[in-house]
Design brief:
single chain, about 280 residues, mainly alpha, 16 helices, about 65% helix, about 0% strand
């Protein structure tokens, strides 16, 4: 196996790969509509209506127990208003990416979705615990897309990806470290590059970049710590599969940044565990 020598070389290789999930056309059209100063929910809803499966997925999410709205939402326009544009973009992206995930790594979509709702729940709990203004919907987006870099590796470096998974299955070493040993880069950084390229906000792509190294984050450190904890809990509860069987110890930097203790974590686990029964949303 040949290790990629420079970041520029790797980026060039990634961009030449046809199997990388591309920005869906509907999202491009929706993004242009949102960027229009005179955008309308109605126009966005009409664009969404051209993709029946996507519209159905949006409605399943907004009506899921995770969001807990008291009344059932039937209108796609109403759903868009409730979810917000960043969540909408993330769901559209994930529709494409999860298709690749299921072919690449069984269980990764379930891991990502559970992590998304867990990150959203933790953010809401942190906001309630003290004076913070963490956008819980952006945390949902970050959780949903945090492992998208694994799809890039699997699609671009297929043989290396197989080797990475084989090593991860036999060793007690973080997957990101194994990726770096072989490729000189890891899925967290690749995911950050792709999400930034797709023009989602820095409050989403920076936590993705630092979700394994929260102490390195200068901006959105709390958000990075929330994503780190959500990922840890998803792994600890055995929800889905993210390429590793080895569970690292909980990150003490995360506990310090969020100013939480074991009792807070226990309460989170009790509140999120039933979410595992709702992961059919993206089927």
């Amino acid at each position: 196996m040949k290790k990629i020598d420079t970041l520029d070389e790797l980026i060039a290789t990634v961009k030449k790969t046809d199997n990388i999930p591309t920005l869906p056309k509907v999202l491009s059209k929706i993004s242009k509509e949102i960027d229009n100063d005179n955008f309308s929910i109605k126009n966005i809803g009409e664009l969404m209506s051209h993709d029946v499966s996507l519209s159905a997925r949006i409605l399943r999410i907004v009506n899921s127990p995770f969001y807990g709205f008291p009344q059932r939402i039937y209108s796609i326009n109403h759903a868009i208003m409730l979810l917000g544009f960043n969540v909408l973009k993330s769901i559209i992206i994930s529709t494409t990416v999860f298709t690749a995930m299921k072919k690449t790594m069984a269980g990764l979509s379930e891991h990502s979705l559970f992590c998304a709702f867990t990150a959203k729940h933790i953010a809401a709990s942190i906001n309630a615990k003290k004076i913070n203004n963490i956008d819980s919907d952006n945390m949902f987006s970050a959780g949903l897309l945090h492992d998208i870099g694994k799809i890039i590796i699997a699609a671009t470096f297929k043989e290396d990806f197989k080797k990475i998974i084989e090593i991860a299955d036999k060793s007690e070493k973080p997957l990101a470290d194994i990726e770096y040993d072989i490729l000189n880069i890891s899925h967290d950084y690749l995911g950050y590059m792709l999400i930034k390229e797709w023009n989602l906000p820095s409050s989403i792509y920076l936590p993705i970049k630092y979700h394994h190294n929260v102490n390195l984050a200068d901006d959105f450190k709390i958000e990075s710590a929330i994503l780190n904890l959500a990922n840890f809990l998803t792994l600890a509860l055995g929800i889905g599969f993210s390429g590793v069987t080895y569970l690292e110890k909980i990150n003490r930097d995360t506990l310090k940044i969020l100013d939480i203790d074991i009792y807070f974590i226990k309460s989170i686990i009790e509140e999120i565990y039933s979410y595992k029964d709702e992961l059919y949303i993206f089927d």
